[in-house]
Design a protein that fits this description.
alpha+beta, Arc Repressor Mutant, subunit A, transcription regulation, DNA-binding
Length: about 280
């Protein structure tokens, strides 16, 4: 059932199932993230056979057709949300969602069927603990509604989960650069030093930065900064989180340093960026 926001007396079209039994898939008018933490299952997804072994995440769009043929000791949770939940700002309870507000684009490729992973994106051993933590907190926020900003925090975790899954599935290679990219995409909210990256790649800093320059057009730490700012940009546009919370969520120790780096790379302050991105789409 949709959630009633008890602080603002409005319906929020999301659901979290602490125990997903796969009996009603796909959920009507919902995109779904099924986090399978143990067991295995086989089925047919849009006339294609799929075989799933935990840990994994199954991404289903509202028009997918799935038939579960076999399950073995499956334990799973699911987060389900209407596409309009991806809009940044809502109007009044009577007006509902505005189609002209900025819409989250991060992670939508996971629900498109022209990608090789088609519904079952790759997750790695390093990514699993963080995905598990984020998914747990997301479910807790849905149930608890601990304060009036609960919906904002859910969007934060949704952006981070979808972004990580999308980043992990852009490449299936295991070159030194890919290993470091995976490490960054998994650990960017935490403190990362260049030494951590060289250890991950088993390269010295000169060799690592040369390979990053050839592949990404910047150094390893330069790419990390740009990735953090990319996630921060999504959070600025699509949530009402304050700058300090966004800084901490994206690996900046202080909001002052975050603001300085954002202005240096984007040419404007985070607050001005937030105002411009929302107004730009609303004016289209």
């Amino acid at each position: 059932m949709p959630q009633l926001d008890r602080y603002k007396n409005r319906i929020v079209y999301i659901e979290f199932a602490a125990v997903e039994d796969f009996s009603q898939l796909p959920y009507p008018e919902r995109l779904s993230l099924m986090f399978i933490t143990s067991g295995s299952m086989k089925g047919i997804l849009n006339e294609r056979p799929i075989s799933i072994t935990a840990p994994c995440i199954l991404c289903l769009a509202e028009d997918d057709k799935i038939n579960v043929i076999e399950k073995q000791n499956v334990v799973a949770q699911s987060f389900n949300f209407h596409r309009e939940f991806l809009n940044s700002v809502t109007l009044s309870e009577t007006q509902g969602y505005s189609p002209s507000t900025p819409r989250i684009q991060t992670g939508l490729s996971l629900f498109q069927r022209n990608h090789p992973y088609s519904g079952v994106p790759r997750i790695t051993e390093k990514a699993y603990p963080l995905l598990f933590e984020w998914f747990f907190i997301l479910g807790t926020e849905v149930q608890a509604q601990s304060d009036e900003r609960w919906r904002c925090r859910i969007k934060k975790y949704l952006i981070q989960i979808l972004g990580m899954l999308e980043d992990l599935n852009r490449s299936s290679e295991q070159s030194p650069v890919d290993l470091v990219l995976e490490y960054m995409h998994t650990n960017y909210p935490r403190k990362i030093a260049l030494e951590d990256l060289t250890k991950c790649a088993h390269l010295n800093r000169v060799s690592l930065n040369k390979m990053f320059q050839e592949r990404c057009g910047t150094t390893a730490m330069g790419y990390l900064l740009l990735h953090r700012l990319k996630v921060a940009g999504d959070l600025l546009t699509h949530t009402d989180m304050n700058l300090n919370d966004i800084a901490r969520a994206t690996g900046f120790e202080y909001d002052t340093y975050f603001i300085k780096q954002f202005k240096a790379k984007k040419g404007i302050s985070p607050t001005k960026y937030r105002n411009i991105t929302r107004k730009f789409v609303a004016d289209q």
